[in-house]
What we know:
The structure holds 2 protein chains of 2 kinds. Chain A is an alpha+beta fold. Helices cover 25% and strands 18% of the residues of chain A. Chain B is mainly α. In chain B, the strands form 4 sheets. A two-stranded antiparallel ribbon of chain B has the order 1-2. A two-stranded antiparallel ribbon of chain B has the order 3-4. A two-stranded antiparallel ribbon of chain B has the order 5-8. In chain B, a hairpin with an 8-residue loop joins strand 3 and strand 4.
Amino acid sequence: MRQSQRSRLAPSLSRRQVLRGAGGFALAIPFLSSLEPRGAKAQTAQNDRRFIAFGTHHGAVWGASMFPPNAVANQTANYAGHTVRRGTLPLDVSGGVASICPTLSGDATILTPALAAKLNVIRGLDVSFYIGHHTGGHLGNYARNDANGGDGGTVNQWPRPTIDQVMAWSPSFYSDLSTILMRSMVIGDGRLSYGWSSPQTQSGTIQEIASENSSMALFNNIFVPEEDPEEEKRPPIVDRVLEDYKRLRNSSQRLSSTDRQRLDDHLERLDELERKLKVQVSCGDIEPPLTDSTDEYGSSYSIDPEAQKRFFQLFNDVIVAAMVCGTSRVATINVGETFSSFVGDWHQDIAHQAGSADGAAQAVIAAAHQRFFEDVYLDLVAKLDAIEDGTGGTLLDKTLVQWTQESGSFTHDSISVPVITAGSAGGAITTGQYLDYRNMSRIANQDPASGETTHTGLCYNQYLANVLLAMGLTPDEFEEPGTGGYGVLHHSTETWYGGYDNYNAAVYANLSDWLPFLEA
Amino acid sequence: MSTPTRCLCALASMALTLTACVGRLGDSGAAGDDDDPVVTTSGDLQCDPSLVPEALPLRRLSKVQYQNTLHDLVRALLPANEAAVMAVLEPMFETYPDDQPSGPDDHFAAFRRLDQTLHQEHVDAAYAIGGALAAELTSPTNLTTVVGPCASDADAGNDDACLDDLIERVAPLALRRPITPEDVAFYREVAEAPPFEPADYADVVAQLFSAPHFFYMVEHGTDAAELPDVFRLSGYELASRLSYHFWQTMPDAELFAAAESGDLQTPEGYRAQVDRLYADPRTAESIRTFYEEWLHRFDLDELDSRVGTPVFDAFAGDFVPGPDLRERMFAELGDMGLHYSVTTAGTFEDLFTSPLSFAKTDDLAALYGVPVWSGGEPPAFPTDDRVGLLTRAALLATGSANTRPIMKGVFLRKAVLCEAIPPPPANAMANPPELSPDSTTREIVEQLTEQPDTACAGCHTTRINHLGYATENFDALGRHRTVQKLFDPETGAELGDKPVDTVSTPQIELGDMTESTGPADLSRLIFDSGLAHSCFVRVYFRYTFGRAEDVERDGCTLVPLREQLAEGSSLADVLKQIALLDNFQERAFLQ
């Protein structure tokens, strides 16, 4: 007979703040510091940074809408052989609307000067080859592209884990797993996050990480119900299940090498399950959400930006809850929704017409991106910033929330992909800046119809490496052998378009170094 | 000279009458000496018996298979209280991840991914469900029935025997194989020493529901087959393959008995079980799923998503699509497949020529202009233009007011002909033509993609558009038409109409300039090309083996099936036939 054990419960938490979200969700939030893993406060070296990444489809917002005016970036430096610029993010308020630029604007009571000072807007980061349609580029798996061109087809053969998965399995990032129920939360359209089939040993194949579209299901994964301290608990049997798999794995019975790999993968999963069964955490007084994001999937969902807003705000609430409870510290969200009521084929009728001289499609694109910024990105950032950490800071200060788009100013063209960040990642990066890394002497593309012009700048691989540095990883944990930075460095062989392989060698020289002006 | 092929030998040993594997590589005199393996062909497929097929590593149960298996186990262990136990489990199945189709181009396959996160979710959910089921089976209400009176009496002296008996009864079912004394010793270890409480029995049972032999189809093989690293499967392994393929659940008692007696490893005994399984009603759901997954269109929006917009409302007229119409259209494809594969002795040709409607609901029947089909002989379509799969609403509808000839063409090229379509060129967005409110959809598409000397024209003219033009006499809801109504894109005001043009040069095989006059002609051309035959067996291969086919290494499975289709065998015979081939009864263990 196996002996039951008395439940061990984390101490109850006092009510300090209440986060009220969509769908009946309410979270009584204590000061963040009281939620940190037990023992964490005694160990000052504990990493408590969080990473959240939004990736949106297409892009193609013209520079004048997406970025502050050039004059804002009034401080210069020479870097990688060209002049780069920075300036303090502007914030104009008019009619109750606060604007950094037309796309990055919203309700002035939410987008306050204090919050704007925690954002960065980065221009001049390039995927250095023609990647075309992709979802993998946002987080460093350039191989996940549609092979629209020769470059993309070549890079298809070099898959990499995405940076969220690198940090999710890094002991530098998760130095304490005692409260972690999900190493990463992968949400939305899928094909954004990729990892090893055996991430603990970084072996096997690179696989897509399945994504979740039910905020309720995600909530149930990150929420630990309050336990009855008097309840007798049966010891888990997962150790015996693990032994059963080892028994098969190590038996002399015939198995193929891939069978053994699958068993190795399964053993890792059981190991992770065993770890999670030991997690002890209290999330305070959470009233679980009453509605699910999937409730929004009505017939008109694809053309209803209000429904899309509610869908992602439900996830924002769950992400904040997970970050507060400490049950996860990584989230990625692939946003396929258009945030527009446009009826028709967005890809052909809007994205491919982004550069039309009449500006009609561009207006639809810019408005849709503004809605996403205000309804989803700003919503999450503001919620994170509303949670005090007890030392004068907020949860946002411990976090890096990024928004990247599939393309730069031109559809399918990843030159000067807009990168918006919020939070300082625990003080690792300087915020409140407009950073412009473009080399204004090197034109990438000039469209006579729209008048839009792009310039090559610095390498997106360097930004990805900077994110990992900001999250507490060291270059030896992630950098690409031979080239540094994160992600495959491919020199374009496309001849049809002048934007590619139009860089000084110095741009590629130090890809694991901090980008200018970014490090705190 | 006629050298018997490996696949012919295998088929002959099953007392079949196939004449598959016709032709030899080297008939022109290029072959090697007599000891070389004979390469045979059928259409565009080729069987090289010297190639070793890959095997999916440790295939896991799909969600449906997992649920069905647990249900069958509950039924076997606790028939009187089955419903109550399943009522507890049903909500927990929600936590078990849904399976997602994957495969070439993300479509037209039916095998399930197992990535790191999904795998973790499976492991977590299966552990929780196994524990909950074990607790239910050993609850005070069920303990005596499932474990025996020895579990609830006051005598601790019989607890050891009680536990061993439980393992010996449950483990062979859960693990789907005979168990050894080592197994009994291993699984009882968790309970430690008597006296045993109900929770101890529950722990033992829960272990079995999380065991590798429960979660996966574990195969070790027995005797070496002809090819290196390939081994024949054991009787129990064959029993599982058969039952999960045809029934999506564990073997029944008769199949286990055939495995135990050795009957399953005789050609006659094996064939008898294949026939029995296929005739069982449980096979119908598998076949329906195969057709629905094969022909599913992920690009098809909800059909009521544009209701309320001026253009769509003007286009739809009196017909208002409801939220279930799209699924009903897909269901018709499954019903059609089922009708010709199970209910009747239909053939592959029927799938391309059938003039019958399988619409089971008012809305779909109204679109077709036929009575609702409620079993028996299906009603015939009122127009000769609507024949076969290609003219079913599910393959025509778009969810908007406009047809999409390009997407129809891409779908047929990929799903029905199994051809890869290269992605659009890098500068596909350059120079878009001005669209006109007085042009038909075909005219607009021609202007957009078929301008001479453009990069687009290469693929669109020869491989894509003309397949779609052939069914332009059906509108975006799948209704028959002879003219296309033109609408003001803003107000929805009707501006007039223009005749539709269904004449095209589909180039089923690249360079074949045979003209098609419309959907019936296109269906005939596709069928006559034989390419759809190859595609069908390739997709069925994916459904059966849970992985994408390697047309070279798996050729000896594909060729006989294709040949059988080409000869006009019934679909039922072809769908059964895959289980009779070597690849189904063997497995490679590559190192």
